[in-house]
Amino acid sequence: MPGAATQKYSLSTSVSPSGAGSVSPASGLYDAWTTITLTAAANTGFVFDYWVGNVSDAGSNPTEIALSQNESVQAVFAPKVKQISFAGRQWFIKASETRADPGQNFFSGAADNVWVNGSGLNLALRYRDNKYYCSEVYLDRSLGFGAYFFSLSGRVDLLDPNLVLGCFTWADPQKAIWHKEFDFEFTKWGDPNNATNAQFAINPFYLGMVQRYLANLPDSAPELTCYLVWQPMYVEFRTYAGRYALASLPPAANLIRSWRYDRETIPAPSDESFRFNLWLNNNLGPSDGQEAVATVSDFGWQSAVPAFPVLPPANPAIEITYLPPAGSANYLQGKAYGVDFSTHRVVAYIKVSGVWWIKPYLDQPLTAIDQDGAWSCDVETDPGDVGLTEVLVHLIPAAAQPPLCLPCDATPAVTGSLAQATAAR
Question: Which parts of the sequence are annotated with region: Disordered (predicted)?
Fold first, then answer.
């Protein structure tokens, strides 16, 4: 009796763009459950980028695929790009004559768009051939967990409202579940009246994963230094006035804003890289019609986490520094003083139609405090909240149990409160 035929599945391989390279082995029929090693080879002028299909690792070359059904796999290649040397590292220069993200802009690697001189790395917005060209550079490798820093020179706090200066880690979302994007962004997002001009953000974005703040620089010393600490259990952002480094940390008094995030899973490094870009929000031209230049004066990384200086303790106190206008997407902001911020919280209440409600949510009644004492709370989580007339905040131990107010007719009495502040609208 003849033996049963071995089941076979087809494997179809292709490349994108056409002519950019080849895949070995080629398309064909293979025994079921066979594990095949796929290798992509780039033609002149291209480099391998990633795989599309049910492969074991979309960012690795070679990679493998196990045939449990008919499969199609595509090797995606990218044009080789120009490189530039800055701060002892090699950076690729982004270039695109078709609209590309961020902002659906054109990007140029021309010498007057991206260059290095005695001042540092310069990123420019240029107007040529009836269109604006933005600029971006990115490291040629992942640096991984550790402490990053960069310094900026010039009045980045006075950028045109339609411009965005981004300083961030990022991984192509086609290669990674997370974008692995930790952002320092300097922008007013197109609104010249925005009371803030900078932010820390984590992407993919979820509620509470962005912190807006105001960075003001003097004409006499227009420099900022920013630090990103990326660890398995947390990410920490810091912005200081002045020019510093990892070997020469800034004094605590120079801290403009910090934020520590440890509330969700922190992605592990793999195929991300650090990047700097200067781009137009929503492809809008600059409101002043002028070209622009942003300068990164230094960059560095180390695996060890530095011990940042802290201010001496003071008496417990709390203040409200910003009450957003009705209907704003901005958060209530303030500062706390004189306590261990890791073991204390802020509880916020709003008064609407004569009664008090806790904010931001019943199941999230307490607001964390950043390591510099800054805190922010969403006080408009319900359509009716636009009618709030007063805000009350208390500084309390994290273990305290303030009244939840569903609502409270009388002003909430918070047991264990160390300090309080109010603001009216």
Answer: 1-23
Between the alpha carbon of residue 116 and those of residues 83, 84, 119, 263, 301, the distances in Å are: 11, 8, 8, 39, 19
- Cβ(133)–Cβ(125) under 8 Å? yes
Measure the CA angle with vertex 303, ends 299 and 305; round to 5°: 90
Model's pTM, two decimal places? 0.66
Query: Cα dist. 62→41, 45, 65, 107, 241 in Å?
Result: 10, 20, 10, 31, 46
Please tell me the CATH code under which domain 83-302 is placed: 2.60.120.200
**Residue-by-residue DSSP string for 83-121:** EEEETTEEEEE--EEEEETTTTEEE---TTTEEEETTEE
Domains 83-302 and 317-424 share a fold: no
Pairwise CA distance, residues 292 & 163, whole Å: 9
CA 116 to chain centre: 25
Partners of 359 in beta bridges: 348
- Per-residue pLDDT for 1 more than 60? no
Q: What percent of the chain lies above the pLDDT cut of 70? A: 96
Q: How confident is the model at residue 290 (pLDDT cuts 50, 70, 90)?
A: very high
Query: Mind listing the pLDDT tens digit for each residue in 138-194?
Result: 998 999 999 999 999 999 999 999 999 999 999 877 665 558 899 999 999 999 999
Q: Which of 312, 172, 190, 213 is nearest to 253 (CA)?
A: 312
Structure confidence at residue 311 (pLDDT): 72
